[in-house]
């Protein structure tokens, strides 16, 4: 297993290189450049040329890319073309917020998914199971922005219990717990239905498995059967989906960030693309690709740990 | 001169609109304003690359912050005339090339007096191409070698050519006076109503009242600018009391705010000119019959009613309705489907391309309407969607017909930056008319106000007749403020009073 895991890591590094080159090539195909975007639509062609020179954009793009790669080899992600500041500074303040949001969502999501999935899987077809399925399906079907507007209208504007936005915060600075309640609720709501249904199906199948029936015939306590055997086997099929969920949360959640004025990685990445800020775009792409690789690797390892006989790395 | 969501330049009403503006006011009667407190104002902002350099103002938020911290020599009024502000007076010589400017007694936040040398330094910095200043074009005509400080409070500016409208430059956004020698704006020092406290690029900017402000200290203790890119988030933050000022509100949200006692809606009528540019230098709109068919085929009433959601008015293919020098006598162009059909048939063109985007919230609806209206005159419009961040750069090069919008500017400035043959490398229409150049130069050189108005009016009329820059509508500009806020009105962006919090209070 260790050798296979090592191969996965090696493959992951190759994937990061491929993503880096791919993003660079795609970015060069985008119309416009940083100078045009920074100066705005009223700038004259002469002003744009001057700023291009000041920002070093008049150099060949491959030379810019080579500089960036050279820095990366020495652990330096470079400086933003638009701001001149180190890229890690720009990303760092957003990363903290996104990680906190993702962790909170996961902390709320996991117990809910397990409890709802286990209950539904143990009592398929019951009124409670149908209610859970219907409610989570509706929650999943409602788009984030629509749910966000509804929740803001109710809890912030009508009842006044929660702030409508996190306006004025920078990264984690100024952020308060009430500001995160509605964003986390939307993130959880969006993912709950899909994951709970997958766990439910997994539990139904595991519960009906011959070896589980055998354990029950042997007189093993029901609690032990459920927690030691049914639940792990029921959860494994949804681990990849869970990994995708975590990956998505760590990649920034653009709609929620926009709705609540949360300066996370999603809006930062979009801003970098819109500004054609190549070093920053590259850094985001690397970060997202690394997150995807790591999260999926962890999901694979977790699957192997839960049901070793069922999973091959 | 285009305007994106980021850098839309708006403003101005004519004398007739002033009454409407007054009706939108939320201050005035009711005794002295309450002092103290922090007003939080939310705008769309530029992100991490923002600076507090008052001479580079690509966004509305940049303009508003500059206005809080700095002063300009003049102020742009609602009809885009310019009156003295930090300048006490200005006088030209008979030729309009030599201007004597006297400064008001004022001081920067660090206690230094505002001097003539600060003004000369500022204008030289703006005119320097390396600064890439927003108002550079207005100051490049200065002969800096010949200009001089007469004494601390008086200077003489010498122009390379006569310009009796030069003082208009002194009220422009992006012409804020900075202390001589300033090269860093990390902690800006100005002479405006608020002193700088703190700023995070892409985040909040905090200012505190300048008790020594020459025009009287503001009522507010503090003023904070917050970046909130999403319009619905600005509305939500306003209604939940997280902010007191929400800039750039859509017509649909304005209805919501108007029915809520926690908010007020401040509307500046006729603030944004909505264009449908066509390129004169290439097919198919190099054919004057097709251009004529286009403007006769537009149902402007329907566009104003539907695309602008009733918060606007039909355009008449001339920039500047309600502004100084606008020729009101030119009849409103109306729809004539039969004539338009005949012209299309004569031209032999059946298909045209229409570039659009989401830079302005009215464009998607306007696109649908215009496609339908053109179909009625025998033209099939193929729609090309262009992303907002590169919209104007793209359509400038590639589009044959495209949407654009421009906020309020002095009419002569708009002509100079979009219609002069000498500026054609940057124009949307590629319309060449040396007579416009001549009329513009004549207007600047003529000391007589009546003759000047006639020359600019003639230039606009030519622009109308030759379909140089078709305008299908003029939209309102809407701001939402908290119900308790006083001292603000529905002013159009770019004017001195727009987003100016020097007289605002929280009660």
How would you describe the overall organization of this protein?
Chain B: Pfam families: SBP_bac_5. Chain B: This is ABC transporter substrate-binding protein. The complex is a heterodimer of chains A (313) and B (507). Chain A has 13 helices and no strands. Chain A has helices at 2-29, 34-39, 45-55, 61-73, 87-122, 127-141, 144-158, 177-207, 210-217, 222-250, 254-259, 265-274, 278-306. Chain A is globular. In chain A, 40% of the residues are buried. Chain B is globular, with a radius of gyration of 23 Å. Helix content of chain B is 28%, strand content 20%. In chain B, strand 6 (148-151) and strand 7 form a beta hairpin. Chain B is of the alpha+beta class and 507 residues long. Chain B has helices spanning 15-23, 60-69, 116-127, 136-139, 231-239, 251-258, 288-297, 300-307, 337-347, 363-376, 391-398, 411-418, 434-445, 449-465, and strands at residues 38-43, 74-76, 82-84, 87-92, 98-103, 148-151, 154-158, 194-199, 205-209, 222-227, 245-246, 263-278, 312-314, 351-356, 380-385, 401-407, 471-482. The interface between A and B is large, with 46 and 50 residues.
């Amino acid at each position: 297993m260790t050798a296979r895991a090592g191969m996965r890591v090696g493959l992951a590094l190759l994937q990061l290189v491929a993503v880096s080159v791919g993003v660079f090539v795609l970015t060069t195909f985008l119309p416009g450049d940083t100078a045009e975007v920074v100066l705005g639509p009223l700038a004259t062609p002469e002003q744009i040329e001057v700023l291009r020179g000041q920002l070093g954009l008049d150099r060949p793009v491959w030379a810019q890319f080579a500089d960036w790669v050279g820095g990366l080899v020495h652990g330096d992600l470079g400086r933003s073309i638009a701001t001149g500041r180190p890229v890690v500074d720009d990303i760092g303040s957003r990363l903290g917020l996104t990680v906190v949001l993702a962790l909170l969502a996961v902390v709320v999501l996991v117990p809910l998914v397990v409890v709802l999935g286990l209950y539904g899987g143990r009592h398929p077809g019951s009124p409670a199971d149908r209610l859970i399925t219907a409610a989570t399906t509706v929650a999943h079907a409602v788009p984030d922005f629509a749910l966000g507007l509804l929740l803001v209208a109710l809890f912030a504007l009508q009842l006044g219990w929660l702030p409508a936005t996190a306006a004025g915060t920078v990264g984690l600075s100024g952020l308060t717990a009430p500001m995160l309640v509605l964003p986390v609720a939307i993130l959880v709501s969006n993912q709950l239905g899909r994951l709970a249904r997958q766990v439910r199906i997994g539990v139904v199948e595991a519960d009906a498995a011959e070896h589980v029936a055998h354990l029950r015939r042997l007189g093993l306590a029901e609690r032990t059967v459920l927690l030691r055997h049914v639940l792990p086997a029921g959860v494994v099929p949804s681990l990849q989906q869970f990994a995708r969920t975590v990956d998505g949360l760590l990649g920034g959640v653009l709609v929620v960030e926009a709705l609540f004025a949360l300066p996370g990685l999603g809006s930062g990445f979009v801003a970098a693309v819109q500004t054609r800020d190549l070093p920053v775009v590259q850094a985001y792409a690397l970060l997202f690709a690394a997150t995807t690789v790591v999260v999926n690797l962890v999901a694979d390892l977790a699957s192997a740990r839960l049901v070793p006989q069922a999973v091959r790395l | 001169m285009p305007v994106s969501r980021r850098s839309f330049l708006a403003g101005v009403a004519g004398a007739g609109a002033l009454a409407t503006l007054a009706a939108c006011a939320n201050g005035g009667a009711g005794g002295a304003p309450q002092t103290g407190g922090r007003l939080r104002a939310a705008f769309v902002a530029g992100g991490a690359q923002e600076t507090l350099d008052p001479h580079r103002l690509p966004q509305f938020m940049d303009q508003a912050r500059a206005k809080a911290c700095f002063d300009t020599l003049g102020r742009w009024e609602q009809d885009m005339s310019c009156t003295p502000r930090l300048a006490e007076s200005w006088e030209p010589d008979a030729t309009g090339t030599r201007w004597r400017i006297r400064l008001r007694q004022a001081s920067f936040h660090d206690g230094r007096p505002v001097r003539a040398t600060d003004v000369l330094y500022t204008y030289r910095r703006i005119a320097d191409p390396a600064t890439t200043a927003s108002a550079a074009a207005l100051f490049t005509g200065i002969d800096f070698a010949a200009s001089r400080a007469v004494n601390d409070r008086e200077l003489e500016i010498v122009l390379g050519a006569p310009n009796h409208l030069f003082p208009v430059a002194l009220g422009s956004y992006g012409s804020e006076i900075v202390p001589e020698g300033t090269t860093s704006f990390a902690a800006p020092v100005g002479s405006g109503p608020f002193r700088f406290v703190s700023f995070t690029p892409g985040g909040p900017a905090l200012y505190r009242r300048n008790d020594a402000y020459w025009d009287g200290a503001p009522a507010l203790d503090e003023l904070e600018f917050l970046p909130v890119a999403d319009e619905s988030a600005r509305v939500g933050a306003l209604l939940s009391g997280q902010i007191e000022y929400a800039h750039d509100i859509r017509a649909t949200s304005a209805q919501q705010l108007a029915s809520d006692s926690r908010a007020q809606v401040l509307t500046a009528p006729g603030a944004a000119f909505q264009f449908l540019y066509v390129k004169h230098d290439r097919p198919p709109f190099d054919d004057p019959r097709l251009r004529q068919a286009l403007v006769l085929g537009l149902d402007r009433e329907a566009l104003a009613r539907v695309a602008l959601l009733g918060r606007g008015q039909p355009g008449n293919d001339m920039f500047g309705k309600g502004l100084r020098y606008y020729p009101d006598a030119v009849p409103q162009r109306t729809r004539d489907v039969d004539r338009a059909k005949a012209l299309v048939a004569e031209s032999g063109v059946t298909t045209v391309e229409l570039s659009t985007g989401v830079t302005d919230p009215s464009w998607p609806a306007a696109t649908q309407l215009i496609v339908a209206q053109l179909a009625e005159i025998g033209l099939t419009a193929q729609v090309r969607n262009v992303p907002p961040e590169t919209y104007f750069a793209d359509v400038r090069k590639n589009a044959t017909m495209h949407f654009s919008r421009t906020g309020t500017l002095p009419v002569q400035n708009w002509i100079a930056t979009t219609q002069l043959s000498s500026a054609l490398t940057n124009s949307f229409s590629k319309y060449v008319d040396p007579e416009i150049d001549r009329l513009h130069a004549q207007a600047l050189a003529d000391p007589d106000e009546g003759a000047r108005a006639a020359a600019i009016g003639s230039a606009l009329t030519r622009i109308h007749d030759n379909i140089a820059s078709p305008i299908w509508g003029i939209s309102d500009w809407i701001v939402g403020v908290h119900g308790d806020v006083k001292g603000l009105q529905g002013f159009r962006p770019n004017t001195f009073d727009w987003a100016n919090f020097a007289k605002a209070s929280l009660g």
